[in-house]
């Protein structure tokens, strides 16, 4: 006869570590007792999570292209072999992928935008002119030198490559550039408004202060010089009446900065329509973020600025202005009052008070 196990007997089995007979009949209450203990009538016991392998290193993806200084190919045969090498082919594919992303995000239309990746002391991969960035293939990408001369590839390079090259010549950390017309950031460019600072921590860490380049005709030496100069201290630059250009250590890094820039401009624009003033995180907190940027290997020209200068957004239309406590203002001025200025203030105050008394 099959044994019937009650709840009390189930508890005894658990206490003594014994197993119930395989053919035993469990009462409903016995099943409840055994449930969760991996015994017959209950669900399997949860297995502990496996421990990580000892000494295992967890990687962070790195797409930066590193070349040997002084080893650029020089002859036509060497250049062609390098241009068609597996490593460079991978970069071409990555350029096309970024092209698809900026097209899919609506950051470019028609044949707008361009992408470059530095691959040597004097070598740069470049997207061609008159092509939709959403439909490029690796065969469309060309190779140019830092003076803009085309060395390889079937399609003619974009004329705006000179702006990218101007950045790369001035800023060695710029190994890839992406130029596009993301709508929110380009709206700031058309309105001639420089985005404010001290608003969002992530933007301060990954973008820093967004640069602003005055308008020059696209494709000309003038625009290359203007943008190249601004981009030395800014990895994201709004180009007045034109769009945005960003640089990074690789093309993925540059693309992220493009997304960051447009998202930041969109958020600031929406916030500025809510009726109140925009809240700043404050210069003291910004100093912490600048220090964090430094630990990540990112330069920031604001490191040596005074606190009031760090969050000075007086030019921004919604009127975000850095507020510095009076005591700090005194410190900024050396703690010394200007006797002549105070006398002038007192004189004007007395004059106003006399006029009011005579009414």
User: Order of strands side by side in the largest beta sheet?
Assistant: 6-5-4-3-7-10-9-8
Structural class of the secondary elements? alpha+beta
What Rg do the Cα atoms give?
Answer: 32 Å
Give the amount of beta strand, in percent: 5-15%
- Overall CATH class of the domain at 76-272: Alpha Beta
Global shape: flat
Major sheet description: 8 strands, mixed
Q: Tell me the series of helices and strands, N- to C-terminal.
A: EHEHHHEEEEHEHHEHEEHHHHH
Describe the structure.
The chain has 359 residues and is an alpha+beta fold. Among the domains are: 32 residues, no CATH class; 197 residues, 3-Layer(aba) Sandwich (L-fuculose-1-phosphate Aldolase). The chain contains 13 helices and 10 strands. It has an 8-stranded mixed β-sheet with strand order 6-5-4-3-7-10-9-8, sandwiched between helices. The chain has a two-stranded parallel sheet with strand order 1-2. Helix 1 packs parallel to helix 2, helix 5 runs parallel beside helix 8 and helix 6 crosses helix 9. The longest helix is centred in the last third of the chain and has 22 residues. About 5% of the residues have low confidence.
Question: Secondary-structure blueprint of this entry?
Answer:
Layout: E1 4-5, H1 7-16, E2 25-26, H2 28-34, H3 76-83, H4 86-104, E3 114-118, E4 124-126, E5 142-144, E6 150-152, H5 161-170, E7 176-180, H6 183-190, H7 201-206, E8 211-213, H8 221-230, E9 236-239, E10 243-248, H9 251-272, H10 283-295, H11 307-310, H12 326-332, H13 339-357
Parallel strand pairs: 1-2, 8-9
Antiparallel strand pairs: 3-4, 3-7, 4-5, 5-6, 7-10, 9-10
